[in-house]
Amino acid sequence: MSTVTALPTLSHRDRAILRAVAAGRCQISGGACAALTVDGLSCCDQFVANRLAGAGLIAAPGPRPEPARLTDSGLALLAAA
Question: Per-residue pLDDT tens for 4-51?
């Protein structure tokens, strides 16, 4: 018996955000509605931080802005893309 793990479907924007996070260009604040900035500017997709954090691809810290970081799953998915 084999186990198949479904990968989340990522848009081009999702992949671009993951690359920006990997490059250290993003800040994120956690909470009910995570806020993401890229290069000091608010991300145009207000839902991307929650979507990627919910998928377990980026870590959502506490309520204060901190550097965004990829999870192991996010690193693996980005490497496979």
Answer: 445 567 889 999 999 999 999 999 987 778 889 999 999 988 899 999
The reported pTM is: 0.83
| 75/3 Cα distance (integer angstroms) | 21
Residue owning tokens 């970081």: 69
Domain boundaries, the chain: 12-80
DSSP 6-62: PPPP--HHHHHHHHHHHTT-EEEE-SSS-EEEETTEE-S-TTHHHHHHHTTSEE--S
